[in-house]
Amino acid sequence: KAGVTQTPRYLIKTRGQQVTLSCSPISGHRSVSWYQQTPGQGLQFLFEYFSETQRNKGNFPGRFSGRQFSNSRSEMNVSTLELGDSALYLCASGQELGNTEAFFGQGTRLTVV
Amino acid sequence: GNSVTQMEGPVTLSEEAFLTINCTYTATGYPSLFWYVQYPGEGLQLLLKATKADDKGSNKGFEATYRKETTSFHLEKGSVQVSDSAVYFCALSDSQAGTALIFGKGTTLSVSS
Q: Is B108 in the A-facing interface, judged by CB distances under 8 Å?
């Protein structure tokens, strides 16, 4: 069974640009969550999607958005990038809502210059 | 709100030493508790979990017991190996409320031969 796939693995963007990250969950999983990992703040929850609907949202500005498609694949978008958005973005998939057992991808390392 | 506190690292041990990483939590409901491990350049892997009080999660020689009376979920291993060097995260999820995973700051473990 394939694991959670995140693309791309690495990205370098310039301040003010926007970026889209992609996550393909494990086959059969309907929940996809996104987390931001930084050395200073640790792992912070961004949002969770289940059956194409955002079910939970963390405390991030509106520049961070996401969506989920009918095949459960998810994308997150960050607009008007800031230097502080540099982080490892992790996607997790689960069979049910609420991350009772979440499986993580390897992450996308975003660097904003 | 819910939160997780884990001991500050780094923890440096010699091979075959005993490991304890402390984790305490604050939760309003009845959370599930998890330990995740992150190897360099990788995403998070679920190490073990416990879903109710007095449950013991175990995997690969690691153990943790869900202690409701002390709100703790300490990670232990009797004999660490160099390959156990990684960052360990304690996390909780309130599955009844359908909330996302809340992580501790992580504890870096370094094992030398």
A: no
Which residues contact residue A91 at a Cβ distance below 8 angstroms, ignoring those fewer than 6 apart? A4, A6, A21, A23, A25, A32, A33, A34, A35, A74, A104, A105, A107
Residues of B in contact with A101 (CB under 8 A): 46, 49
Q: How far apart are CA B47 and CA A93, in angstroms?
A: 16
Which residue ranges of chain B lie beneath pLDDT 70?
A: 95-99
Q: Which residues, in sequence order, are bridge partners of residue A105?
A: none
**pLDDT, tens digit (0-9, with 9 covering 90-100), for A59-68:** 999 999 999 9
Per-residue burial over A13-23, b if 16 or more Cβ lie within 10 Å, else e, is beeeeebebeb
Question: What percent of chain B has a predicted confidence (pLDDT) above 90?
Answer: 77
B99 touches chain A (CB under 8 A): yes
